[in-house]
Amino acid sequence: MANKNNDELSLIVPSEYVRNYMQTTGWRFTDAQKATLLMYGGLTLKEQYAHLQALQESTSDQELKERLARYLDTEALKFQAFKENPDRAYIYILKVNDDNESYSNIMPEEYFFDFETACECGHETGQPFKVEKYLVTVSGLTAVMFPVLHGLNLIRRAKLYIFAEGFLMKMEK
């Protein structure tokens, strides 16, 4: 059981110093605190979703259960909406980070009309990459792209990050 607690602790607290302090003092997080750390802890979307779903099933806090259910449902809908582009009004831009630079400094690698193809090409590079979605409108003869992102740029190596409807989402590479 101690091993499970250590694994959980290392998942939600990246600092070894803080983990050691917590273990020596017996500090424990509430389920609500664990949920917050999982939501903002830099996990991939798949990992975050799985851990929050497990927490939702195991917590005795009924209000937290309901909040997690709404959050998980909303995140799934946002991700689905990000992937959809039926009228090709949006374009997906692939940015590959082979120098571990800030993604804001990286020029677009390729442009796509569908999310899946952008991801496949990103995976083929073997490097960390990001896919952004932009709304494309035509004004006269000029195409104008409006980014569909308002979130923080929290890039971690070897993980795919997706900006969807103003929220940062992550997927496992």
Question: How would you briefly describe this protein structure?
Answer:
By secondary structure, this protein is of the alpha+beta class. Helices cover 45% and strands 23% of the residues.
Word description of this protein:
- The protein has 173 residues and is α+β, with helices and mostly antiparallel strands.
- It has two domains: 2-82, no CATH class; 90-172, no CATH class.
- 45% of the residues lie in helices and 23% in strands.
- The protein contains six helices and six strands.
- It has helices at residues 2-12, 16-25, 31-39, 45-58, 62-83, 115-125; strands spanning 90-96, 110-112, 129-139, 142-147, 159-164, 167-172.
- Strands 1, 2, 3, 4, 5 and 6 form a six-stranded mixed β-sheet that branches.
- A hairpin with a 2-residue loop joins strand 3 (129-139) and strand 4.
- Helix 3 (31-39) runs antiparallel to helix 4 (45-58) and helix 4 runs antiparallel to helix 5 (62-83).
- The protein is flat, with a radius of gyration of 19 Å.
